Automatic annotation (TrEMBL):
CDD domains: Ribosomal_L1. One of its GO terms (cellular component) is cytosolic large ribosomal subunit. The keyword Glycoprotein does not apply. PANTHER family: 54S RIBOSOMAL PROTEIN L1, MITOCHONDRIAL, LARGE RIBOSOMAL SUBUNIT PROTEIN UL1M. Binds directly to 23S rRNA. The L1 stalk is quite mobile in the ribosome, and is involved in E site tRNA release. One of its GO terms (biological process) is translation. This is Large ribosomal subunit protein uL1. NCBIfam families: rplA_bact. It comes from the Bacteria. Keywords: Repressor, Ribonucleoprotein, Ribosomal protein, RNA-binding, rRNA-binding, Translation regulation, tRNA-binding. Signal peptide: none annotated.
Amino acid sequence: MIKIFKRIKKIKKNIDLTKLYNIDESIKLLKNSSKVNFIESIDIAINLGINPKKSDQNIRGTTILPHGVGRTIKVAVFTQGENIEIAKKSGAEYVGMEDLSEKIKKEGIIFDAVIASPDAMKIVTQLGHILGPRGLMPNPKLGTVSTNISEAVKNAKTGQIFYRNDKNGIIHATIGRINFHENQIKDNFNTFLESIKKVKPPQSKGIYIKKIVLSSTMGVGLTLDQSNLSL
């Protein structure tokens, strides 16, 4: 705890937590203040002007980040027939139907995304209690229930992220790693922000994007100055 306190104290010396930073300053500060012995993630939190208690104002979507998230994505695919080989050739780590379902139940295998062909949903729905809390339940609107298994797997592998607001109307996501080039982080940031703008519910009134905070895994959060952002 003492080491953590000293590290945070040192970081705060170079950062004014009351200041609004532009996106370029924020990225530079996060990169320069990273002093841990692992590659931190770059995370974003967006406070939205929505009423999360109303179902027609809740946000849920997906986007493909141009530079990915900087880690290997493990994909599980529920499908059958010729799609099994297609999924494997596309890079899926786990492929199957009832056998894959049993493996998940008994072995607790770890994966980051789940894809399903429509004819496999009868199997997938039985795993709702496992996949649901992890935000991994396949959904046609998110492209994770698809007849094009190859495209769905490749999207998941190359930077597709899923997001939804929490009970406070805040969206959290990872948009890269601290070792990314500054322009790569900025590209991912702009792509993610554009996606959030596109899914604004018509029922949402007033300011839609109220606050944006960028942070690293072990760092502090920097509030962005939105005056230079195209909101």
